[in-house]
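Schema walk-through. Below, the input block comes first and the output block second. Nothing else is stored per chain. Lengths vary across the set, and this one has 425 residues.
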Amino acid sequence: MSAMNDPLTPLSGSFDFTMEKPMPTHLLAIAVGDLHFGEIGARTGVYAEPEVLSAALAEFEDTEDMVVTAESLLGPYPWGRYDMIVLPPSFPFGGMENPRLAFITPTLIAGDKSLVSTVAHELAHSWTGNLVSNATWRDLWLNEGFTTYFTNRIVEAVYGKEQAELEVVLEYGRLQQELASLPLEAQTLPANVQQQDPNLAFNRFTYDKASMFVHELERRLGRSDFDKFLYDYVQHFAFKAITTEVFFDYARQTLLVEHADKLSEAQLLAWVYEQGMPASFQPPTSTSLDKVDAALSKFLQFGELASDSTQTWTVHHWQYFLNALPEQLSQEQLMQLDEQFDFTHSTNAEIACDWFRVAIRNHYDPVLPLLGQFLVRIGRGKFVKPLYSELMINGYHSEVKAIYQQARGGYHPSIVVQLDNLLAG
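--- output ---
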């Protein structure tokens, strides 16, 4: 449970949980199952079904290092223990930041720690989201924007600057896709979710535009001054829930007084209340992607993608490559990529999803059996919603009907509601 829980409690059937600190009610959660515990550090560990526990412990073994890094930025970890629980594949989210027991999707267990930034994200929420929380869902960007930024700082400290830069570039790529599909009136950060499906608030726009805003604050202030502001902000509002307007009142008393030469109130307000991205925004870049751009150009021009040139690529390079491919590819190009790199059988859910989307829109039908298995096995909204959408858009109506009939019973109710509406439309 998301409260103090001794992992050594005898399994007698009687359990006690204590939460002595104030927390938002949306963070109350209970998990029940055949759960075993594995220790990572003195205050960190993993609960999981026995079949996946050892793999989860290996994947998430850097969690204690992440906690130490986070503490160096925002102060002592305030919740006692930081444990994680690996949920079934039907769990619809990447993670959920319940205090002391973060809920984690098994799709993060890739075998190479390439997707553990989600663990860093849920940990970062221990400060920005659980310690300083949003007062209403309209203020969700305060949680997710600062947390997405803070995640990147943890990744940089634990896994290096190159990976951190790559993740920000991919983040911006997702934001561009979201901006292209969102109506302009929806492109302000304090989105009013009272008049629409609340699930729509949890899109990449809410996370990534807000994160770009926080990165912009760091760029303008410089890292040292920004770190001081962020630390003071978290300590000032610890164990409180605040609104967008409360944040701006605080900024007027701090940022705009101490850094008036670097930042104006109009610039702050534009980021949050205006549509789209401010004219002054500078998109993130990474020189690490130059080799991917060169390889992609060579592949499209000459039909070659040398395996030796991709040996050092990480999952982030491959995601960038797959998302940078042209909308239309020939069957020969797709077959060559698949035979060379076996994307269709990828055990990395992120790469598999990106590849399936490329294949679907180009009617590369050899992927259909594995795609069907993927959609039946995994219920994470990040993957299933875009894949069903891609299938529908590209005319695979009978295939969708067959897959969904088999998969629907294993999905979380919140995803079922969204998919029922999507497929009906």
